[in-house]
Every structure is written in C-alpha cells, then in structure tokens.
What does this fold into?
Amino acid sequence: MIDLSVLTEKASLVAKEAGAYLRQQQLTFDRSVVELKSMNALVSDVDRSTEELIVKRLTEIFPEAGFLTEEETTTQATDSQYTWVIDPLDGTTNFVHGLPIFSVSIALLKEEWPVMGIVYEVGMDECFTAYEGGGAYLNGKRINVTSSERLEDTLLATGFPYYNFSKLQGFQNTLAHMYQHTRGVRRIGTAAVDLAYTACGRFDGYFEYGLSPWDVAAGVVLVREAGGIVTNFADKNVPVAAESIIAANKSIHPLVYTIIEQNIG
It folds into this structure.
C-alpha cells in the first residue's frame, strides 16, 4: 500500500527539478532546432531531455509503476496497477517563443483512475499538488474552486484546436456565446495550467477538445480535490481517456455543458 501523501511530496520535488531545468534551457533556447511532431504540435530536444530526467527520478522513488509519456522516451512496461502519466513540457509553443507560461505535469493513475496530480507552473514558480482524498494545494496552501453560480460572473479558459477541426464550427458558436455571457474567455496555451488555475479559482471553468491523457491527467485530480467537477463533452466522468474536457465548480459545470451540448453535441 503506497502512501500518496509521501509520494506526492517526492514527485513534486521531481517536477520542480524539471522546471528549474526548463527555466535554464529557455534562456539560451535556439528556435531553429524545433521539430514539427504533427500539425501545429512542436517538440524539441528539451522536451525529450526533460522527460528523461523525470522518468529517471520517478523510477527511483516508485520503481514498480509504469509510464505513459508524451515523448515516449521510455518503453518501460509493468504489470503494476500504477502508471505515471507525464507531460514534461506542457506549453511547448509558449516555451519556444519565449513566453513564460509553461508547465511540468505529473500524474499517477491507479488502474486508469487518476489518484495524484502535480502541475508545476515554471514561470510563476507555482507548484499545484493533489492526491485522492487529500485536497488540493498551491505551494502548500489549500485551494478551492470558485463559488460562482451565474455564467455572467465567470472568467473561463479554453484551448484552440490545432489539428482536429471536426468540431470547429460548433466550437466557434460556443465561444461566441461565451463572449456575450461571461466576463471573458482566456487561452493561455497549456491545458495543465488551465486546470490548475481552475482548481485555485483564477478561472471559474475550462473546456477544450483534441486532448491527450498527459495534457489533463494531473489537472483532473487538482480540480476534483479542489471541489470541482470534471467530465468530457458527453458529460461522462472519463476525461483522462477522452479527447474533450469540461472542468468547473458544481454550479457552473452544468451551464457550460449545456452550451457545449447545444452547439457541439
């Protein structure tokens, strides 16, 4: 039986170490070495080297667990019920262009259910942590989702599709509604941070489609442990495996879901 509180503390140190490495690398980063992994999806040697660092450190603290990683730098397979889900650099485009908003995301799944999440927002030196039943924290202080009840009082976050445009018109219609019925919609370029900011109340909610498990796994735990609701666009409680997500407090979530259901289906 693992102690999630102890494991979270150790894994957060790994996230901070990786973040310090990224911070240093951005100072001298050469944009010409960037590769195009897929349409609008950038990757660099920094993504890969950071992931290798994280995998090495997590293996040291919990060798029984397997890995699901964005850059596939490890092929470690295991029969363990636990799996690390890692995004070494969420917000690669921001990083490449010198923007200060990017993050390290580390989650732990138990039989495909997220039980621990860490998002380290490098530019602000903010470490968001949570584990199942333990609450959510920012730099050691308890955080909670907002208590907003009306859409008109909310600030929402989203991400623009960058390769899957099958729902584009419905997504545009959803945004048009949000422009007119909220305090605004923000797109900062890292799903992990969007979820962390929703967990701590900076955003009242977040929605996006075209996602992968490593984009959201850690943030899902943060929002749930901060008192929020997380589903996919079909209002099903399977956001880590799904390609879409809605995260918000208990009052705002159904309002956002209804608008998405009407426009995207």
User: Anything to note?
Assistant: Residues 151-263 form a domain with the D-Maltodextrin-Binding Protein; domain 2 fold (CATH 3.40.190.80). Residues 4-27 form the longest helix (24 residues).
